[in-house]
Prior knowledge:
single chain; alpha/beta; six-stranded mixed beta sheet
Amino acid sequence: MKKDYEKQIQELRKQMTLEEKIGQLQQCGPSLVGAFEVSFEELLDMMFDGRITKEEFERLMGTARQDFHEEDLRAGKVGSYNGIGDAATANRLQKIAVEETRLGIPLLFGYDVIHGFRTVTPIPLAESCAWDPTLWEKTARVAAEEATAAGVHMTFAPMVDVAKDARWGRVSEGAGEDALLNSMYGAAKVKGFQGEDLAKEDSMAACVKHLAAYGAGEAGRDYNRVDLSLQRLWEEYLPPYKACIDAGARAVMPAFNDINGVPCSVNAWLLRDVLRKKWGFDGLVVSDSNAIAECVSHGIAQDKKDAARQAVLAGMDLDMSSNSYSAHLKELIESGEIPESILDEAVEDVLRIKFELGLFEHPYQTNETREQNTMLKLEYRAIALEAAEKSIVLLKNEDHILPLKPGTKLGVFGALAADRGQMTGAWAIGARPEDCISIVDALKTNNVQYQYSADGTDLSKIAAVSDVLIAAVGEMKEESGEAASRADITLKQEDMELVRALKATGKPVVAVLFNGRPLAIPELDRTVPAIVEAWHPGIYAGSAVMHVLFGITNPSGKLTTTFPAAAGQCPMYYAHPNTGRPGGKSKFTSKYLDAPTEPLYPFGYGLSYTDYTYEDLELEKGKDSLLVRVTVRNTGKKAGEEITQCYVQMPCAKRVRPVRELKAFAKTALKPGEARQVVLEIAYDSLGYYDWDMNWVSYEGKLNVFVGGNVRDTLEKELLLR
Ligand code: GLC
């Protein structure tokens, strides 16, 4: 039961001066100073556009020191920090806030704990392929225990931006293209981060992001415009954020993008009408980094003062790093342009989360001993390994080349097979390469006979003494995540050249993919008999891959994003409408002249070392829900876990509906020969949509139900609903 702090909040707020109130709305991060004449942002640009080399940039960085803005803090002008990830610094700054400012209001420390802190687990897109809410909550709990030990109070996660365009780099940070999966993933993460009691010292506030529809950026280009019908916004993009609010998330981060021309940072419909009024959210709204100031370049604010005015009126509480509030709110209040009551609401939201986190009672939530004793605990590592194994998706396994027999001699190729640092993926800012296990590390410590070549040197010599060749290919971690959209999502030329050279030796070749997005890899698919999708799996990358290669683990992961056959198909997703001329053989149908209509691998797809069959699909109309029963049988020789998926189609409605919509799924462990009846439930109130006038319509009429191991290969039944 959430405690009510409203009386304390009001009493404290009434004691605050205008400057102290504005100070509480300022979140800053340590800035780098002293190494260079230009700003850090300018220095970054100089490196990116080649005016200085990466080496020069790193040398300069080496001479930089961090400015923690202590003087501003002492003067009551800072209420929160982003990017403080160690107990000593957090406690030092907290001491200034608590003991040296007039009211002693404690600081709130936010940090990007996206998929682990020191115990880095698979990137969210990978972990979503486990279809396992229990696992998702477990890894979030580990992240909370480690991050709070380092002084973190709030994580800028979960990110639940539905992403249907593989060109977007941040597809790596969420749970893929489906609203239901993102909703369940996000709710599990909120529970794991926040625990049973937010005031406990190992709980941290979840900040769900990025509200809203950041993954719908046109052309998959980061920060790009989002122009969506309200129907699609409500049906396909908003549900995951609501699921996180309903799960108790205490903070929200609006997205950089606009929605239909109004940037989320100044979008009162989004932040007040939807988030607060309709969804009942009473937590904290924190801007994305510099996002308020960027409303000027969006073209909706005259200047930073206008941006500050619009943002605070729209319901943005905290200004992350743009200094718009600290520079202009005083003037806006004193001139009467902004009623002080609006400012008070924002201040109360900040105070509320600080009370709920228990920061007034125990502002020093950690110390260096706790920090030291918490990181990389054995039980955390076990969970990281479990998550890495369950995230792996077996995409191809011709002639059952996998699993490898014990004693198989391997030729291992590709830099990614030995590059520990690349295994953590995007947004692993607390990660250390030395904590990670690469494929080569895992083979070495498990006495597997192997020879390794990063770039194919001695290829023929190594191949000659190897039984099977492993090609570790894909993406560096910098090629996904923020500001990492790619127009061409195929494998790099040098990767395909390596694979072709390996194939030319005549030895069987297994490709292991390390990547942060779906890749268009039809050539790889044509060239090798086996493909293991490992994503960026975190600290136990090598162990998990080796366990799958040798069958110690039977892969069970299933794709949560469609793998296109060509970048030109993007955005490509399974829940698409049929059109009046669905793509087919005849000319005048919806297709490409130069690319297939179908994806390379469909949504929900993933192979196993065993086989499953589906029988006896039955539908039963319950009181509030449709019950779907199916028998799943393990017809192979290995135990495994099968992710059964249930989709519906509303073939005739007031607005055209997708050919498939995921409505339920279940994961079932089955021994060889074992059969189990799986029961899935579809709530009737989930069977609806918005009509042209944005009225919610509960579907009536014929409903097609599909059940199987992926969106394409299913049993089908229909029934008349209502
Ligand atoms: C970044 C990201 C956001 C992150 C924030 C703080 O620009 O958009 O996801 O939480 O800044 O680091």
